[in-house]
Design brief:
The chain is of the alpha+beta class. The protein has eight helices and 20 strands. The structure holds FE2/S2 (inorganic) cluster and fe (ii) ion.
Length: 407
């Protein structure tokens, strides 16, 4: 039976510079912010354990540079954005979007401290579909993949869905786990949750797909979920259709969720929802504007006794699917001890294939090859259509084989 060893778990979960997975993940573009949010103030971010400041200078150019000023290490997030960069709030050193120090107020021109010799780490940035993507890997950088949910015709909604106090991989694995909705999402989606779905898992050009069919209350009709995992950590599904009002017609809605490693035990979930223009449904209100905001530790020993003299025991989960996911995933150890798992060859086939795929693709990168889902050909990148969705289909349409258009 398949087991992930302790050593493999280390490889899969560690994202620091120089680690195998850390180097692998740096080969891809990652969303680190939302374009519309970045106005006149800089913000402090952390990606792969590296402290950075994100800003848009007054010329509109975005910078992602080391957070700590090269002078005496004040955090530049307190600074002011100017035409040519961000100015440190402490003694006014000015840095451009390439991290180059361009002004040291008070030092005379003949000083032996030369601004030209001062440079903070800086990373390339691109905006696409309302997101700010950054690239932390070696040059030449690949293209930012133009997925349909970023560039297709329709409405795009972007939310930072939450912050998890856990490793990035357990967030990703949740998206390749088609059994959990029956149990985890019984609160949010009580309608289709038969507990023994029929499953199919396949590798695709971009990552993996799972197909899951469940019986519904309507005889002869099945609930069909097709979820994709796009390397290195984008989960795509179609459950957002449940929050649409109006006729269900046209191209189904889809959503993508990036699990962005803040560090090895914290993860940001960036979600994009896409409603194609030929779909007449409407989102009323915005169920997705709610965040998953866990307290620093929401499960601690004797929590109820700390909080109250007359405790009500238990940990209620609000019936919203991304909060249900968030709480369950966060309830695992911050870096799950996979060597102690017992995986089911059928129910966990997706998890097993996913881990094997990561290890294989990391190996490819180490041999100097481009791993899966690195896009360099502009022709191929006009629009990458990912058929992730949830639909209700007649039993005669059941097909667990490899039918995905991206296969
Ligand atoms: S610490 Fe930034 S200018 Fe002194
Ligand atoms: Fe889920």
């Amino acid at each position: 039976m398949y087991k992930t060893t302790k050593e493999e778990n280390e490889i899969l979960t560690r994202t620091g510079k120089g680690t195998p997975m850390g180097e692998f993940l740096r080969r891809y573009w990652w969303p680190i912010g939302i374009s519309a949010h970045l106005k006149e103030r800089p913000t402090f971010i952390r990606v792969f354990g590296e402290d950075l400041v994100l800003f848009r200078d007054a010329k509109g150019k975005i910078g992602v540079i080391g957070a700590f000023c090269a002078h005496r290490r004040a955090n530049l997030c307190l600074g002011d954005v100017e035409r040519d960069g961000v100015r440190c709030r402490y003694h006014g050193w000015l840095y451009d979007s390439d991290g180059q120090c361009v002004q040291i107020p008070g030092e005379p021109p003949n000083s032996e401290l030369k601004k030209e010799s001062i440079r903070l780490p800086a990373y390339p940035v691109e905006e696409l579909g309302g997101l700010i993507f950054a690239y932390f890997g070696p040059q030449p950088a690949p293209l930012v993949p133009r997925y349909n949910f970023l560039v297709g015709e329709g409405e795009v909604y972007i939310t930072i869905q939450g912050f998890q106090n856990c490793n990035w991989l357990q967030c990703v694995e949740n998206g390749m786990d088609p059994v959990h909705p029956s149990f985890t999402h019984g609160g949010a989606w009580p309608d289709i949750m038969s507990t023994e779905p029929e499953l199919g898992f396949h590798e695709t050009e971009w990552g993996m797909v799972y197909k899951a069919y469940r019986k519904t209350k309507e005889p002869g009709m099945l609930n069909y979920r097709e979820h994709h995992l796009l390397m290195p950590g984008v989960s795509c599904g179609g459950s957002g259709g449940r929050y649409l009002s109006g006729a269900q017609a046209g191209t189904p809605v889809s959503a993508a969720r990036w699990s962005v490693p803040i560090d090895d035990t914290h993860t940001m979930l960036m979600r994009v929802r896409f409603k194609p223009s030929d779909n007449p449904g409407k989102y009323e209100g915005d169920p997705f504007s709610k965040r998953w905001k866990p307290p620093q530790e929401f499960i601690v020993p004797y929590k109820e006794y700390r909080d109250s003299d007359a405790p009500v025991l238990g940990y209620p989960i609000p019936p919203l699917h991304f909060i249900e996911d968030g709480m369950v995933v966060d309830s695992m150890p911050p870096i799950a001890d996979r060597e102690n798992e017992n995986l089911g060859p059928a129910i966990d086939d997706g998890i097993i294939k996913l881990r094997q795929m990561y290890l294989r693709e990391v190996g490819k990168m180490q041999r100097g090859e481009d791993p899966k889902c690195i896009v360099r050909d502009p022709e191929k990148n006009k629009e990458i259509v990912i058929p992730a969705y949830e639909k209700w289909v007649p039993e005669s349409e059941r097909n667990l084989g490899k039918t995905a258009a991206v296969g």
